[in-house]
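Our consortium's second objective concerns turning raw sequence data into structural hypotheses that experimental partners can test. To show how far this objective has progressed, the report includes one record in full. It was chosen at random from the queue rather than selected for favorable results. The single chain below, 169 residues long, was entered without modification.
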Amino acid sequence: MQIRLKTISKAGIDEANSKAELYRLLNEPEEAESICRDVLAVEPTHQLALRLIGLAITDQFCGGASDRFEEAEAFFQRLDDPYERFYYTGLGYERWAKAQLRAGRPPHTLWVLLEKAMHCFAEAEKIRPEGNDDSILRWNSCARLIDSRPESEWLPEFDMFETGDGSPL
């Protein structure tokens, strides 16, 4: 059964976005996402709604197969500002890696996600608005996460195969 959704007014967009931000703060990202979908149905390129929906989706990451990184990334890639595209995409990678780490995934399997996050933050840093150090703060957060664990946890484990005489291949 498909229930037809009601359309919000253009005049209600600012208030709807405020509510989406509030629901994110209240740790109700599903509500925030729903509101952003209503805003984007009326104004598909609304920049704040695109940022908020991407963030609301990343708020829901649990480190499992249900994580919708590609969907969040697609919203971030629709942002007009190149700085914001890099910054929020990096934030998506960082949050995805952290969720998987909390879920018990081995750190070495997440290295590539943190590497992509740090690359995005480094690119955002190059074009950041004056006085905006957010990309540096996030890059440092990733670096501290990596430094918080022994180097051996970030390296893949390889099984040693032996030849018939007991020597490694």
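The partners drew two points from this record. The chain is about 60% helix and 0% strand. The CA atoms of residues 18 and 103 lie 31 Å apart. Both points have been shared with the crystallography group to help prioritize constructs.
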